[in-house]
Design a protein that fits this description.
This is Diaminopimelate decarboxylase. The protein is built from 12 helices and 18 strands. The protein is of the alpha/beta class. The strands form 2 sheets. Strands 1, 11, 12, 13, 14, 15, 16, 17 and 18 form a 9-stranded mixed sheet that branches. Strands 2-3-4-5-6-8-9-10 form an 8-stranded parallel beta barrel, surrounded by 4 helices. It is globular.
């Protein structure tokens, strides 16, 4: 997509608006499958939480992807998108036993990361296949909020609890068909990931009826020019060799599974906003846009970087701006960014807006959530309408305050 096409989309569907490039999603999917072409059985389960629009899910299904879900609602969304139960894995954290049972009843592959829940489920449903999420106690990933494999993480069953885990399995006679880990997002060092994989392989040897090993994901994408990214090709070559060697030792061809989210959709996304005002203070020039952390919270939540450019004036003279939102709290998207000269009414593009942007959006300040558009086959397709005031109030229930409380006479 070029600047002209993006500007046309803002004219047609309004601002702000999310735009996703289907071709980029397809390229990333092919890149991942090509990196692991040396594995006989490979399964890619797209992490729905990154971007859950049903049209995006259907497009990924057309590429051959399954899905990774973390809530029963995501399971239902996947089924609505046409995925079969066999193409869905359910990897929640801290949910009720009844929610896990609901997913299992639908025939979904469940993944459990809690000894207490595992024992309860195994006692009631010993024949239902279960995957176990292991915490390898390996710190991988960027921000601490997205590093989930370390010793203090709430995710997974500790490798130090394996004896207890095996005792539960022996007592319940439950069916363990998979083993899983997820170290965190924004993996910078593949050697750390490979080290964690060795821990998972050693753990897997303790289970005799496995069908798959799931390595989660967390592959880092570049956020700016020259940025570090996960070397997926090198990882594919090295991990494939380790996996194939393990399968030979295990005596069975297992499936190698991954759950990429950000890797598949982040770079496909553009978030387009319009400049409401340019405000000069004693030390800063603010570009104030028609959005805020209600639509793009990652910079404020994680300190994440999104490149910002002015697609209305792509060849103008560069100046320094702090790009901020319209929320009545500090919502700075970027400080002192070098951007081509900005005027009121210009359209600014935020890159890498495909993952955890719309999916984390809210109605804070009673603002509407924007429209979503998918660029597919050189054409813009509206895949979510912009919200209206009716969407804000449709589930609110008004109380009648005109009635008076009747006095009760005490005799």
């Amino acid at each position: 997509m070029n600047e002209g096409q993006l500007l046309k989309i803002t004219e047609e569907y309004g601002s702000p608006v999310y735009v996703y490039d289907a071709e980029k999603i397809g390229t990333q999917y092919k890149r991942l499958t090509s990196a692991f072409k040396g594995v006989k059985n490979l399964k890619i389960n797209y992490a729905v939480k990154a971007l859950s629009n049903i049209s995006v899910l259907k497009y990924l299904k057309s590429l051959g992807s399954g899905i990774d879900t973390v809530s029963i609602q995501e399971v239902q969304l996947g089924l609505a998108a046409g995925f079969s139960a066999e193409q869905i894995i359910f990897t929640p954290n801290g949910v009720s036993l009844s929610e896990i049972e609901e997913a299992a009843k639908l025939g979904i592959q469940i993944n459990i990361d809690n000894l207490s829940v595992l024992e309860q489920f195994g006692t009631k449903h010993p024949n239902t296949p279960v995957c176990i999420r292991i915490n390898p106690h390996v710190m991988a990933g960027g921000n601490s909020n997205i590093s989930v494999g370390h010793i203090d993480s709430k995710f997974g069953i500790s490798i130090h609890q394996i004896p207890h885990l095996l005792r539960i399995i022996e007592n319940t006679k439950m069916n363990i068909n998979g083993i899983h880990m997820h170290t965190g997002s924004d993996i910078l060092d593949i050697d750390v990931f490979l080290y964690a994989s060795e821990i998972l392989f050693e753990t897997a040897k303790k289970f005799k009826k496995l069908e798959f090993i799931d390595f989660g994901s967390g592959f880092k994408v570049p956020y700016k020019a020259g940025d570090i990214e996960t070397n997926i090709e090198e990882l594919g070559k090295k991990l494939s060799a380790k996996f194939n060697a393990f399968c030979k030792e295990y005596g069975k061809e297992l499936t190698l599974a991954f759950e990429p989210g950000k890797f598949l959709v982040s770079e496909s996304g553009n978030f387009l906003t319009t400049v409401n005002a340019v405000k000069q203070t004693t030390s800063t020039v603010f570009a104030q846009v028609d959005s805020g952390f209600n639509h793009l919270v990652r910079p404020m939540f994680y300190g994440s970087h999104h490149d910002i450019d002015n697609i209305s004036n792509p060849k103008g003279r560069e100046r320094f701006y702090s790009v901020v939102g319209y929320i009545c709290e500090t919502d700075t998207f970027g400080s002192n960014r070098r951007i081509t000269e900005i005027n009121e009414g210009d359209v600014l593009r935020f890159k890498n807006a495909g993952a955890y942007c719309f999916s984390m959006a809210s109605n804070y300040n009673s603002r509407f959530r924007p429209a979503e558009v998918l660029w597919y086959n050189d054409k813009a397709h509206l895949i979510r309408k912009r919200e209206t005031f009716d969407d804000i109030i449709k589930n609110q229930v008004e109380v009648d305050f005109s009635t008076k409380k009747e006095k009760v006479l005490v005799k």
